Amino acid sequence: MDVINFTRRRFLKQSAGMLVGVLAASSGALALIAPTRTWALSLETLDTTTGEVILQATRHIYPHAKLDDAVYALVVKDLDAAAKTDAAVGQLLKDGVAELNKRAGGTWISLSKDDQFHVLHRLADSAFFQKIRSTAVVSLYNNDMAFAHFGYESASYDKGGYFNRGFQDLDWLPDPPEEASPAKE
C-alpha cells in the first residue's frame, strides 16, 4: 500500500483558492445533516478572492438571511468546475469581479452590504451576473443542504407519495369539508 505524503503546503499548491467557513449556530436542520460545523471548499481554477466575491454576489442575487454560506459555496464550486472545463467562463468570472472592483472604486467585497448590492445591481444585465444567476438557481436550491434548510422532504414519489407523508388532510383550511380528508386505509 502506497502512502501519499499530503501536506497542507502541497494541498494549497494544488488548489487555486480556498473558501472556508463555520456553520452558523442557527443552521438548525442543516447542522443535523452536516458531519461537522466547519466546511472548506478547494477551488481548482478560481482564486480565493474571486470565490468570495461570487459567494457574496450570489447572496445578493438569491438572499436568504438564515441560509448558511456552505450552501452558497456550492454555487462557487459549480462555477469553479465550469471555469476548469471552459476557459471563457473563468475569464468571464475574473473580468466580472474586476468590473465590480472598478465600479466600487476599490474592493467590492469591502463595501457595506447595501453598497455591494447597488454596485452589483448595475451589472444585472451583464453576462457575469447572468452566469452566476443561472448557475445559482440550480446549484443553490437542488441539494440536500438547501432541502434541509427549507424543509423540503423530497419529491412525492421518493417516500410513497404525499398521501403517505401526512399531506392527505386539509385541516389547515378554515373549514374543510369532511370528504376532503378521507380516512387512512
Structure description:
The protein has 185 residues and is mainly alpha-helical. It has one domain (8-152). Helices cover 49% and strands 6% of the residues. The chain has a two-stranded antiparallel ribbon. The radius of gyration is 21 Å and the shape is elongated. The protein starts with 7 loop residues before the first helix and ends in a 35-residue tail after the last helix.
Order of the strands making up the biggest sheet: 1-2
- Tell me the major beta sheet: 2 strands, antiparallel
Secondary-structure class:
mainly alpha
Number of helices: 8
Key phrases:
185 residues, mainly alpha, two-stranded antiparallel ribbon, 8 helices, 2 strands, elongated, disordered N terminus
What's the arrangement of secondary structure elements?
Layout lengths: L7 H7 L2 E6 L6 H5 L4 E6 L4 H14 L7 H17 L1 H18 L8 H9 L5 H13 L4 H7 L35
Antiparallel strand pairs: 1-2
Helix pairs in contact: 3-4, 3-7, 4-5, 4-7, 5-7
Task: Give a short summary of the structure.
The protein is mainly α. It is built from eight helices and two strands, in the order αβαβαααααα. The N and C termini lie far apart (57 Å).
